[in-house]
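new request in #modeling-help
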Amino acid sequence: MIGGLFIYNHKGEVLISRVYRDDIGRNAVDAFRVNVIHARQQVRSPVTNIARTSFFHVKRSNIWLAAVTKQNVNAAMVFEFLYKMCDVMTAYFGKISEENIKNNFVLIYELLDEILDFGYPQNSETGALKTFITQQGIKGQPQTKEEQSQITSQVTGQIGWRREGIKYRRNELFLDVLESVNLLMSPQGQVLSAHVSGRVVMKSYLSGMPECKFGMNDKIVIDKQGKGGTTDEPGKSELGGSGKQSIAIDDCTFHQCVRLSKFDSERSISFIPPDGEYELMRYRTTKDIILPFRVIPLVREVGRTKLEVKVVIKSNFKPSLLAQKIEVRIPTPLNTSGVQVICMKGKAKYKASENAIVWKIKRMAGMKESQISAEIELLPTNDKKKWARPPISMNFEVPFAPSGLKVRYLKVFESKLNYSDHDVIKWVRYIGRSGIYETRC
Amino acid sequence: MEWASQLCENRGLGSKMTDSKYFTTTKKGEIFELKAELNSDKKEKKKEAVKKVIASMTVGKDVSALFPDVVNCMQTDNLELKKLVYLYLMNYAKSQPDMAIMAVNTFVKDCEDPNPLIRALAVRTMGCIRVDKITEYLCEPLRKCLKDEDPYVRKTAAVCVAKLHDINAQLVEDQGFLDTLKDLISDSNPMVVANAVAALSEIAESHPNSNLLDLNPQTINKLLTALNECTEWGQIFILDCLANYMPRDDRESQSICERVTPRLSHANSAVVLSAVKVLMKFMEMLPKDLDYYGTLLKKLAPPLVTLLSAEPELQYVALRNINLIVQKRPEILKHEMKVFFVKYNDPIYVKLEKLDIMIRLASQANIAQVLAELKEYATEVDVDFVRKAVRAIGRCAIKVEQSAERCVSTLLDLIQTKVNYVVQEAIVVIKDIFRKYPNKYESVIATLCENLDSLDEPEARAAMIWIVGEYAERIDNADELLESFLEGFHDESTQVQLQLLTAIVKLFLKKPTETQELVQQVLSLATQDSDNPDLRDRGYIYWRLLSTDPVAAKEVVLAEKPLISEETDLIEPTLLEELICHIGTLASVYHKPPSAFVEGSRGVQHKRIPARAGSGESAESSDVGQSGPSEAPPAVIPSQGDLLGDLLNLDLAPPTATVPSVQPSMQMGAMDLLGGGLDSLMGDESDTLGGDIGGSPSMGAGLGVAPAAMPTALGIAPAVGGGLGDLFDLGGGVGMPTGSYVAPKTVWLPAMKAKGLEISGTFARRGGIIQMDLTLTNKAMSVMTDFAIQFNRNSFGLAPAGPLQVLTPLSPNQTIDVSLPLSTSGPVMKMEPLNNLQVAVKNNIDVFYFSCQYPLSLIFVEDGKMERQVFLATWKDIPNDNEAQFQIKDIHLNSDAASNKLQGSNIFTIAKRTVEGQDMLYQSVKLTNGIWVLAEMRIQTGNPNYTEMELSIKCRAPEVCQFVFLCYELVLKN
């Protein structure tokens, strides 16, 4: 198990050091600093073995978090824990920075004592932790016995992510379907790989212990219903039936509140949500993806000192929708001396420090096209190595889900309190963003 | 609707706390000041002072001098202050044990506190204080806390038992905490269960022989129930523990798999990987023709792909594991090539791992895509990555024959870029392509020669020299080229020197007239001016060869080289099996067994995959298998390293040149160590990895569905094994002796009992094939027909490999001899005695039952000769309790004769030592199910009349020893 956990600033000074196991000594702190943070060559693996001691590290801005062990630990668990630790710290005091860590070091030690016992991760849900560890120190002494046992039963309970007795005047929930669409296209326009990785983020402000059921246009579910012919399925009327009927989901993962065995057997997504914002599910699709933009590059080398670049982008969605924050990044060689750009729409600039022409368009409706052309002057070099021609990348945001995912319903049941599904105000929104959206040139 | 991000809410960004000031004090006399503040009457001031102390402690200052002052602050109602003091205590108690005692009272008191949070805190902290005197006081509070009404306290106490065990194992046992901990597995609270499982697993690791984690179907059921309810971390503990369980049969295995698969959808990657581990292990037990088996295979791919969208560090862990999974079961991800394509901004460690997997998945179906990608990568910036990409192109050429031509032309394109390291890497791989496809692509030699000057790395130089030497007859100026290298002979690395020596000798043999001077020069350089013994030896060998018998020299030096194998960098199968059992852990990241990087006793146990139902798994290992120790011995075969690399040094002469051709078969041999050796030959896709060089993953699947071909395959399989055995023996210079002893037939089924059918028989092992020789006699009055035979389940899975061949009806008083080939892939059940076999024979009259006993030597396999090193390690590794002593009297053999005789029955002598007039023989035996038996035999040599031998036998499954001894006796006396 984890033998110790250290946090360093960018200089390698220790900000937090907590040792859990006897086999980890103080010298481990220095070993990591010398061999990883101060290493002459950048380390090439997130796992480093120094003198039979293994170090796992992640970096957040310029802060290093390192977990140390001498045993054959579950490596995936250690990294998951380090990420979780970052989440917990962020939830308590915001950005992970040297200043914030120093300001909250007592709190961090308290957290580390609570969420890691003898190197075994314990309940690390902020919802639960905040009931008894606060920035003002441990909650005041005068707790009633009920309060105490409520805390402990929550920390150890089956629903460790939600406390009892939550009350809202207005029961409200927000669903965000956030997708990032990834593309790698050959210069000839052939899709080399494309996938959507999506997340359903939920913000719930619901009283009590609500039982929720989430439905989407999952192909497997729809097909099953089609066969079974069940008509009383909730929410069928809520879906307009526009666009694609159903989508094939390659794989999905769920927040720990979702009952996985139920999903496995019935493919239904039911859960008691944490309070506030959390990520309900992640999913991935690769079939029938709507690629919102097509990039058509044309690069011509004119002699040894000049390049001509022409890039056309085409939007490929309903004309009534608007894409936003469009940015096309056209890489230029290192020996570029000057660039002249002409574009039909938006603004384009050559950024020497980034070795790229950055073309920005604020808005663009569907089924449109736009073009940029550039002349790049090159300094003659005797560098034999050819320019690597990195791919042209693109950023954008569109108000639909490129995977075609649609939320069909989110039902809320709370039997003990007197509000019903109809009283809950629900909001759904779709945002499609570019992930790594690249076209080779 | 602007509510997208309210994350910063409630975070108290504007908090007034500015604890950072504690980090700044560096004045002299600080300790003194702190002391004063710690003893202040004001609570606030005290707390401030303790915070300063903790800050100093964090940055590594020694504040142990303040121990009594800090401990004085412990008696407080303020929980925050209390926690800080505890933190200090955990750090310094060990260095101040006497003063730490001062804290005991407070701890004991706190363990009685009405507030469960304080009770838990006290027991948690106490366990972290590694002072003997304190641990004594810990026992009573801990006992109470383990039975506390509050689950939070119980879950903390469960971990505390593990802490205490780490400090004083004996104490934990004496106090009976282990039993209490076991009881907690049935606790109503899932988190208590999870922590208890974690604690027990850890303790069990340091007690490999105890049956601590007594996993039985009932507890497994409890764990599976808790799995659905506990935190993500608890799920990991439980899954990791489940992975150590050995299901009793395929049905249980399937039901566990069914309950574990939902975990594949968990958001936590570690939960997913641990679930994958359980499934990969248990699916090994499922019959392959089962529908569920196919479903499970399909279910594994998507979650593995999803892991690649996690954060980069986790991607790295996932990729290292996928690398193992792809080697074990290539069919799972064979359609997922695209997801391993490298992204421009992947961290370098992710890129390199993806590349590795791409090569493994490359097949004829996707080679075009892969090549296009690799060509892109070869123009990237990172040198290591580019090199690996170039190397990968070469590997594709070797792996997929149809693509070789395109690969070569791609490589030529890359050479044209003139980027130094690209050129060098390309030349290294082209050499391998020449080895694989001789006389096909030599037209490119001219282009290669143009780049001779730019080669500055030894490997590339050596490769180029090899090419020049090998194709000297086609290169007009080969002598000039080689001569140019000769100038700086002594500055070259050994690799290049050796290669140059060989290349020039080759050149001389091909063009003797023009190159006499050159060869003289290189031979004298190598033999007279070098102080490298390898180089000198090789030089002398050539010299003598050339001077005594040029024809022989030609035969040796210009011998036809064996083809190189397609798959490289494969992990040796035994290790692979072990690593599969460690999916998700550091071992799977390092690709090393835990014993390679973990100190002490922890993790030294070797884990293994359970065998498929119906394979030659032995009864005893499935009996005690769960606890680990009696599992298959650690048959560590030193990893072969990069084959391509080896080849470079290797064109000396046939003796060494045979190595690569042995390689694939060696891996097949190694596969046998895993148990179910036959099984793996019958179409387990793992043999696509080791033995089968077909290479393309699709082939593995093809093989996997060939149960119809089984009976024939069975007959042949052992023969293959035998052949290999021979090969190894010859290598060792020991001739194959007479063969194994076959006992005379005895009557197994008297005619009285079988309505006139008499059966007598014996067992024999001939050339690796197990046979049951039967004589059937019809002593009845009527004709007998329709014979069939069946075995009951038995210890080593013996089963008929074909029908009983009695073709003609057996007339009255007729006798017929039948040989029935046996396999060891039948169902396994432990018999009493171990070598008992219950047989049913049917004919047109009735079914008859009888039982017989076979000599254990029947299942001694031909490749049972252990490496000396491995023998030594294994001998030490097996606990002394497992050693059995025997005496064999009246043997009139000297040690050589004895070992020769024993070898006929596949008892191999590894080493011989003579000590004080005694010959000590060290011997190894391997059973068909992969169990190794080691023996030490002492024979008096001085006195021919003294005919007693002493034998000590060690085996992880000690039940076997007695029967092995009987075999010794039988063989030596006959």
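bot summary: Chain B is about 50% helix and 10% strand.
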